[in-house]
């Protein structure tokens, strides 16, 4: 096995990959992260050395597995999955959150779990269960007649509480939750996980909120059913935080899951953000790895946690296919690659794969700033601080019977959410078929602006977004040209907020269709 402690590079899974949870089965490690209002939900990553990670599927790959995802808003949707393996079955437990519902309305939280015999799937339809909160986690207590427990976080704006119920994993029936710990006094005790070691049940949680005050804290008890007063608090809490290290690049450290490797060494996966000047972190919360010394009663995590330099990557360009190869198991049809994401449930009739590297998208009555409905949009996570994406845009057509007043556009966007995005888009006017306007569309905190230039008619336009630590650069050129034209430079600070991270997306709006080809992702 690889010497993990010296060869991995943080973040181990870069880009929009928050709230990591991990389990080991033999020599294999499986890790899941949150996806909020994006679909498919919960990517599952695989590694055999904790260094090289590959996405092998999505846990929530069918709409029936996550009903009402189309009713979720910004920062709602799928929160904080936990993955566990027990007696030949994989379990992923999570919460679908409806942030527009009142805090005291417990339908705000819809908790469920799914199962699979292979981590790549297919995963089952959901089993729902009652719990008045979020960040739910399973613990299979083989020391206690095989009883299964679920821990979760009661919403901190009502009261601070980590509580626990017994659960029947065949039916989803749960006992009344029992309060087991309230944390160390910081806000938002959440993200609980329990593990058993040397006769003790260790409870690990996050506190302080998922911003700069984030931290990991712990308590333990000889009896998993103990009330709060019987849990012994770690004398060196927090186990890890960067709250007191404001000059470190890595911030917002928390939401951890502890595990052992194949040689018995302890590690934790946790979320953190790379914040340049403390306020530029458009990729949001990423997955980090930290070695743990657990020779004594309590784990010790060396800090500070460092991240790989933005300049340390070999410059390389990868063609990122839209679709998989023709698969005889699916009647020779192509399917979108597992790493592409949609907003909520897509209207599949709007997305047509021509081959692996070409697709046609058709617009709808919804724009990128619609708060709840899915526009025609599909994208990939930004996963490097310095990168460049390009795509060829051609065959923009206005459709007939236009009853919509929406602009007919097609383009490329750096998208965080419906209130925070920048886009470069080609606009065709119905009354001036040959007038091609290239727009920079900016939506920051709900304030929208559009700047335009007029182009000569081009059969194929190539669009690009390049990134640096603090800026996005939007560029274009016609296919026959050698030189790029920069349309605009914008700060990425506007996209450094919330629970998710930037997605490079293709989109079409209004009564139009467009062909996209040869999407490339270059590490700079």
TrEMBL record:
InterPro entries: ConA-like_dom_sf, GH43_C2, Glyco_hydro_43, Glyco_hydro_beta-prop_sf, Glycosyl_Hydrlase_43
Residues under site feature: Important for catalytic activity, responsible for pKa modulation of the active site Glu and correct orientation of both the proton donor and substrate: 135
UniProtKB keywords: Glycosidase, Hydrolase
SUPFAM superfamilies from the UniProt entry: Arabinanase/levansucrase/invertase, Concanavalin A-like lectins/glucanases
One GO-annotated biological process of the protein: carbohydrate metabolic process
GO terms assigned for molecular function: hydrolase activity, hydrolyzing O-glycosyl compounds
Active-site residues annotated for this sequence: 19 (proton acceptor), 190 (proton donor)
Gene3D superfamilies membership: 2.60.120.200, Glycosyl hydrolase domain, family 43
Domain (Beta-xylosidase C-terminal Concanavalin A-like) ranges: 334-521
UniProt record similarity statement: Belongs to the glycosyl hydrolase 43 family.
Protein name: Beta-xylosidase C-terminal Concanavalin A-like domain-containing protein
């Amino acid at each position: 096995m690889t010497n993990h402690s010296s060869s991995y590079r943080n973040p181990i899974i870069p880009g929009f990959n928050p709230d990591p949870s991990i389990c080991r089965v033999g020599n294999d490690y499986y890790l899941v992260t949150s996806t909020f209002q994006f679909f498919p939900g919960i990517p599952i990553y695989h590694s055999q050395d904790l260094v090289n990670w590959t996405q092998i599927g999505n846990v929530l790959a069918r709409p029936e597995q996550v009903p009402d995802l189309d009713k979720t808003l910004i920062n709602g949707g799928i929160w904080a999955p936990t993955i566990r393996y027990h007696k030949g079955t994989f379990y992923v437990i999570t919460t679908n959150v409806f942030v527009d519902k009142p805090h005291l309305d417990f339908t705000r939280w819809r908790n469920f779990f799914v199962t699979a015999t292979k981590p790549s799937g297919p995963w089952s339809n959901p089993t729902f269960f009652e719990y008045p909160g979020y960040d739910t986690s399973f613990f299979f207590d083989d020391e206690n007649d095989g009883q299964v427990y679920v821990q979760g976080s009661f919403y901190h704006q009502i009261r601070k509480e980590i509580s626990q119920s017994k659960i029947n994993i065949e039916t989803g029936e749960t006992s009344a939750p029992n309060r087991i710990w309230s944390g160390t006094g910081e806000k938002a005790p959440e993200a609980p996980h329990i593990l058993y070691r040397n006769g003790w049940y260790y409870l690990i949680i996050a506190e302080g909120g998922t911003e700069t005050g984030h931290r990991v804290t712990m308590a333990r008890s000889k009896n998993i059913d103990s009330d709060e007063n019987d849990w012994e608090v770690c004398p060196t809490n927090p186990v890890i935080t960067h709250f007191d290290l404001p000059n470190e690049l890595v911030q917002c450290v928390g939401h951890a899951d502890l595990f052992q490797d194949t040689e018995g060494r302890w590690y934790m996966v946790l979320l953190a953000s790379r914040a340049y000047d403390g306020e530029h972190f458009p990729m949001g919360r990423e997955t980090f790895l930290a070695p743990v010394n657990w020779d004594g009663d309590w784990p010790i995590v060396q800090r500070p946690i460092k991240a790989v330099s933005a300049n340390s990557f070999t410059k390389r360009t990868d063609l990122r296919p839209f679709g998989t190869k023709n698969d005889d198991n699916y009647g020779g049809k192509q399917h979108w690659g597992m790493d592409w994401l949609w907003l909520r449930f897509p209207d599949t009739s709007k997305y047509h794969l021509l081959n692996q590297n070409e697709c046609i998208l058709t617009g709808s009555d919804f724009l990128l700033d619609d708060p709840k409905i899915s526009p025609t949009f599909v994208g990939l996570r930004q996963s490097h601080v310095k990168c460049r994406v390009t795509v060829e845009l051609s065959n923009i057509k206005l459709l007939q019977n236009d009853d919509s007043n929406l602009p007919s556009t097609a383009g490329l966007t750096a998208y965080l959410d419906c209130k925070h995005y920048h886009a470069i888009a080609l606009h065709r006017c119905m009354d001036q078929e040959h007038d091609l306007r290239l727009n920079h569309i900016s939506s920051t905190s709900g304030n929208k602006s559009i700047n335009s230039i007029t182009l000569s008619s081009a059969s194929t336009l190539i669009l690009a977004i390049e990134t640096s630590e603090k800026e996005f650069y939007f560029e274009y050129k016609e296919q026959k040209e050698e030189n790029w034209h920069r349309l605009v430079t914008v700060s990425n600070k506007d996209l450094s907020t919330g629970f998710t991270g930037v997605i490079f997306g293709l989109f079409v709006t209004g009564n139009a269709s467009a062909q996209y080809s040869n999407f490339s992702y270059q590490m700079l």
